[in-house]
Target: Tetratricopeptide repeat protein
Amino acid sequence: MINQTLAKLFRQDSILLRAGFGAAAVASLWGSPIELSAEEPTKAPVIIEKVVEDSVLIATREALEEGYKAPEDSLEPISSVSEHEPELADPPSKSAPPVASVEVTDLATEEAAPQATAAEDAVEDAVEDAVEDAVEDAVEDAVEDAVEDAAEQITVADDDVVVADAGEPTAPRAMATPGDVAAALLQEEVKVAAAPFKQIVAGVSSRADLERLWGEPASQRKTSDGVVMAFDQEGFAKVEVLVEGDRVELIKAQLVKQSQPERLAAKLRVDAIDPVTIADDESGEALGIAYPEKGLMFLLTKSSEGLTPISPQFVTHIVLQAPDAEAFALRAETRPRHAYSKRLKDLTAALAIEPNAAYSLWLRSEVYLSTGQPVKAEADAKLAVEQDEDNVAYRLRWSETLAAVARYDEAVLETRKVIDDEDAPQLVKAQALALMGSLASLGDAQIADKAIGFHTTAISIADKLATSKDATERRAAKLLLVRSHLAVANEVSRRSYDDKADVVAQWIGRASGLAEELITNDQGSLELRLEVAQVALETLANLKPAKDPGPWVTEASDAATAIVASTDDKLLKHQAHWGLGQAYFHALRVAHTRREAERALTYGQESLSHLTEAAATADAQPAAEQLIGRLYFHLGAANAVHKQDHAAAVEWYTQAEGLLLGDAPKSELVVPRQLGEALVSMGVSFWNQDQRPKAIELTEKGAELMQQAVDAKVLDPGAMAVPFGNLSTMHRNLGDTGESAKYAALAAEARDSKTDSESVARRRGNQSQPRAASTAGRDRTASNAAVGGGSAPQTTKKSSTRRGLLR
Model:
């Protein structure tokens, strides 16, 4: 039943109308990209009738002459050469605009505010007399307050991670054991404690304490929140205290004369704490400034009340309360997105105060997800949804985390709920469509065919939001535009399209331009530049023959180096290493395809070093394990092909096998693509090293997975000639003529199916259909998948396309 459910979720029908799109948007959901501007790619990707993806069985020789018959004593792999010539967009210029600096007006200068008067000094002295001693104690000695438990601190040993140099021997090694995220947060401990005011501590002191220390109130009134008691305190125009039940909840003191926020913060000795501005939801005007660790807030004048329209705002009241979870969450939200460690610390403090705060859980799950910790992210996101099941943003985050931990079927179901919610905000709907596009790309041919449509519709919505006055919405929309363009480029690169290389170049170029605009003008992180370079290398690896990866490798390396040099945030540094490790991995794939042996091995060692460096804060999770498994596989293949060193290859393959065949959750959606072909290729080296039972086991498992891909119409049936032919050879050498004959017949049947496929392709070509991409190179390559007898399997060669679940 779940197969039918998944198919329905992806089908093109009236269910999409419930998503709130207009007729034009629905019509274009599965079509070409929606025009965004003059810079939009001029040629949209065109899906041909045949959506079978290129076979990637590893090969050792060029495409052979038509009619070539494999020698009887060899195992015949598939060539990886085709006529497609990629022309990626030029790498971003080295003179690209730098990250914009932020200018902050110094309100403490004499020029930025009216001259201080004797009266103002007197008021500030009065403030200092009233609260300085108590606040100073709270700031310097904040270990005695009852609220200190809210500052939950987690520490672990800061073990050094040893990173191998690229020149070291290429021996396989396991990744560093993933550590707790707290390893990235080793800072001097900061306590969370309410600031006392004349010996009264909001959230701690009782009404009896208040009356004993301050005497009878001048007046009091009842409100829905409790009793508000007014007191006369020297140096203040008015002091009001909110008492709820028998506890002091809030203290509000009105200054005799307004004061500059910075000067007052310095006097109260909270200027070392990162403040957060409380703004009006509609106008965006600053209403106050909060210091979450101390439960302290300054209320500000309205901007219209200044001496001139450009006058700075001043403090009218100081408010003290118990440390508040919302203040920490707000500060985490308003920090730059890439300030991972500080955001995580804020949100951990918020959740220590209010463990089930859905908003804080939602925010923290995003930080975890962005820093390679999807297991923790999923736990937070699920709890947020449980607290507020109607919040589509929370549900979307949960969907993202489900996908990240390879629970794809659940991710599809939850994402569909978001898309179908008529009340979902447009940004959330666009993000859900982009996620659905990524999920669709994992499915069979019919489902994967819809991936680009989801992404282009997400682009169409995000483009309208990219000029929003709401900074959070605007930046999220711009980020979505970058990533959706990259997703389309990647999807195009691994399928059959007219002028595929040109189309990929346009999408990558557009993504690069959007990323640079976000970096320069809207607090975007250099991580985006690294991400563009990484995906550009991935698309380059999916095109055959591949161009020189050097310029994009340099771009990725420069971006990662700049990130690491510019921050002390360990989580951000680790993410830079992880992104660069992925970039080097794809560069390895390209160099291998180009038969650049030493370069391929160097890139592989660089990838291993950077991924190991990043592993300290990463969760053990399927995507990471698959990436490392693929890296080990390609390092083994490089040794087998370029060095004819099957012994070294087997060492790497042994490391790769457990990761590639890990315990990922079963899915009815995901179709295994290149995993089966990798196992078949691994079997060749094991056979060469006389580990024959293992070789047969891997080849049989690979054939099983390849057959699943054929059934899903993402792999040509003719590709099965290779594993069947190899199994025939292996069993013949073991003396099992019956099994050998069975597999020989299956191999012949597979070759016949490829011949039929070639005939169809030629007939389509004779019809001069301009929308159809050439498949001649691919089909000729597959037609050489003949398998003969013999005991010495040939070495393998890595293909330039690896996609799907192994991506």
